Amino acid sequence: LRLWLAWHLDRLEQRLRAFIVEPLLRGRQAWFQEFSAYLQQPRMEWWEFWARYSLIRIDAEKKFGNIKDEATAREFYTTHSYMMWRNLVHRRHVPWRRVLVTMKREGRGALWEFGCGIAPVSAYVRHRRPRWAYALSDLLSPHLSYAQWRIPTWHFPEFFNGYQVITAFDVFEHLANPEQVAKNLVGFLWPGGILHYNIHYNEQQNDLDLASREQLDATARFLESALDIVWRKEEYVVGRKR
Q1: What is the rounded distance in angstroms from the CA atom of residue 224 to the CA atom of residue 85?
Q2: pTM tops 0.90, yes or no
Q3: Under a CB-based contact definition with an 8 Å cutoff, are residues 167 and 114 in contact?
Q4: Cα angle 59, 65, 66; round to 5
Q5: In this predicted model, what pLDDT tens digit does every residue of 138-151 receive, in sequence order?
Q6: CA distances from 143 to 16, 18, 63, 115 (A)
Q7: Rg of the chain over all Cα atoms, to the nearest angstrom
Q8: I need a surface site. Which of 21, 92, 187, 210 has the fewest CB within 10 A?
């Protein structure tokens, strides 16, 4: 029930931000001010942000056709800033109550945002769960640099042996071996720990997609066998480690 309610509140807030708050505030929004500070360009204008994103996207789309394997995908991720800008554009209005409700309010815990991009989940929940520790992982890249700027570095204590919550959003389809990665993620969960994930297959495979339909189906079967699925909405799944 809490996940169902959080999902609908997230969708409602996302629409309010996109269609009411943004047209009114434009360049005065918190996400825009934060990104401007990161770029060290506090005088960047609203229209300039969108013009720059459009040019970066056009340049990136020219290169997508040459990305056929893991090596070329890694090169693109690590050298091009497109994913940083795209993450910001598509995640700027998204709240994450549905992750927050699976994080215990009392006590400490650890959340791992796997394939974090610009770390939208950690950026949302860490102020609401300040006693939790946050770990980010992604390829060394412009988007990871921005994520690490946003989220303080956390050093693993010697006694660390698992995460209470792991998120893996929009990541499996971009991996050459998604099933093995899924096994690794489940292995890092505490008993009773929660994994939030989605598995999306793009028939055209034109968006840096490395995994095949068969690989993603095998990944989904593994996760459903290794976890107790406690909630599902469209492609979004929440599972608990047995």
Answers
A1: 33
A2: yes
A3: yes
A4: 95
A5: 999 999 999 999 99
A6: 26, 22, 18, 10
A7: 18
A8: 187
Q: Which two tokens stand for residue 91?
A: 């995640």
> 3-class DSSP state for residue 98?
helix
Residue 2 C-alpha from the chain's centroid: 21
Residue among 165, 33, 19, 35 at smallest CA distance from 87: 35
- Tens of pLDDT, residues 53-110: 999 999 998 888 788 788 999 999 999 999 999 999 999 999 999 999 999 988 788 9
Contacts of 109 (CB under 8 A, 6+ apart): 103, 129, 131, 132, 133, 163, 164, 165
Question: Which one-letter DSSP state was computed for residue 21?
Answer: I
Instruction: Provide the Cα torsion 77, 206, 137, 151; round to 10°.
Output: 80
* Pairing of β 163-168 and β 189-198: parallel
What is the layout of strands, in order, in the sheet containing 227-233? 133-137, 110-114, 163-168, 189-198, 236-241, 227-233
In tens, the pLDDT along 64-77 reads 878 878 899 999 99
Do 220 and 199 touch, CB atoms closer than 8 A?
yes
CA-based nearest residue to 112, from 158, 171, 71, 70: 171
Phi/psi at 225 (nearest 5 deg)?
-85, -30
What is the DSSP code string of 50-78? HHHHHHHHHHHHHHHTT--SHHHHHHHHH
